[in-house]
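retry 2 of 3: previous attempt timed out while embedding S-adenosylmethionine. Reduced batch size to 1 and resubmitted. Inputs unchanged:
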Amino acid sequence: MSDSDDDVPTLSAHTLAALHEFYEESQGKKNTCDVSTPADQFAVGAVEEDWGMSQFWYTDETATRLAEELLEQAGVEGRIACVSAPSVYQKLKQLGDNASVTVFEYDRRFAVYGDEFIFYDYNEPLGPAERGVAPRSFDVVLVDPPYLSEECLSKVARTVKYLTKGKVLLCTGGVMENVAKQLLNVNVCHFLPQHRRNLSNDFRCFVNYPSPLLSG
Ligand SMILES: C[S@@+](CC[C@H](N)C(=O)[O-])C[C@H]1O[C@@H](n2cnc3c(N)ncnc32)[C@H](O)[C@@H]1O
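retry 2 succeeded.
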């Protein structure tokens, strides 16, 4: 580089090539979403789990059962919110039921879903309102908080209460049962959700409405 003010600093062709290669590689690592075909795009697990974001995807069977439950509870033309539960959003789209679904997610890789993706950080419980989501917009809200703590569930509960017209389906550790009852008046279901990678902790579903599909 020259110290003259008139000269624009330049990089050698070799440095530029190395930078380009680094950029391509880091994009490849960041965007591990396989979107080669529409079917792949909505496959459960199309986006690799990032444990740093507490991501543990459901098995296909569990995502299917939860998606069926949401469709049943939302009814025809009902609106569904998947909060921190992207694999159920994917399954709903895969079922191709023309369901009206929004995915609220912290992981911006899911922004590939366009207008149906809304960035969500549980530390800002009313962030969805700031992003233009009207109160009580959804017939049913599914939520799977990233952490098993009262602090996290309290904040998430504020978001859920803002979004829902009434129905709530919460998936979280069994240890959260009492706190979940206090915050969202939900009761534990018989159905046991499973993850693609076995989790050691007892994981459960909770609802605040009668659910033959999850408790029958
Ligand atoms: C336990 S996983 C639930 C995923 C669900 N089992 C599924 O298969 O779709 C927690 C989710 O919370 C999201 N998450 C991580 N940090 C978050 C944050 N600060 N605010 C909101 N969601 C967050 C993760 O990206 C992940 O989707």
